[in-house]
Amino acid sequence: MGRISEILTTENVAVEEGVIERALKVSDGDLRRAINLLQSAARLVGATASNGHISKKVRTTIPDDSDDDMDDADKPLPMVEDANCIKVSDIDEISGTFPPEMAEQLFGVLQKGNTRNYDSIAGQIADITAAGYSANEVLLSLFNRIVFDDLVDSKKKYKLTQMFSEMDRRLVDGVDEQLCLLDMSCQLAGCLAG
Q1: What are the boundaries of each domain within the chain?
Q2: How many CA atoms lie less than 13 Å away from 19 in the CB half-sphere?
Q3: Comparing C-alpha atoms, which of 107, 91, 120 is closest to residue 151?
Q4: Ranges of the chain with pLDDT below 50
Q5: Are 146 and 138 in contact (CB under 8 A)?
Q6: Are 9 and 42 in contact (CB under 8 A)?
Q7: In angstroms, what CA-CA distances link 148 with 57, 85, 126, 161?
Q8: What is the pLDDT of residue 57?
Q9: How many whole angstroms separate alpha carbon 62 and alpha carbon 47?
Q10: Taking the domain 100-193, which CATH number applies?
Q11: Does the pTM of the predicted model rise above 0.70?
């Protein structure tokens, strides 16, 4: 964390609270990967330092019907910390990880059970897959949320771990991700509510 903070300060890149921790968690503590992730995030929000200004690439189109003919123009903008600050959501977006708040929302739906809750579960899964999150990311996020939660008893954790293992095997075998997530979510909901 200290090294990343030093780099961000040297490069004059503003980040909101929790960004460094999230970058390290997403990169599994790999410093090089975390730095690359933050560098990509800085480019995304236009937070690359240049002579005391934030340099932001602005795409301008040439008056032509083709989208292939675009010209990049560097226009230095004055530093505005709010607009050019790297946010935790930027880290999640760039890394492609399933956001913790979406995992919490899905977990809340799953806790209600699966008998009369199928439409809510199916809606959540449809939204998740439409947003483009990989089933493996959702599986990992739910696993971390459920298995490390003290509110779920040990006997259920054993059964839930078996479910996660089976779903992971199915994904490796190449099943449809949306159907696998829906099946897994219904099974998890039944176990959590039971």
Answers
A1: 2-95, 100-193
A2: 23
A3: 107
A4: 49-81
A5: no
A6: no
A7: 42, 32, 26, 11
A8: 36
A9: 26
A10: 1.20.272.10
A11: no
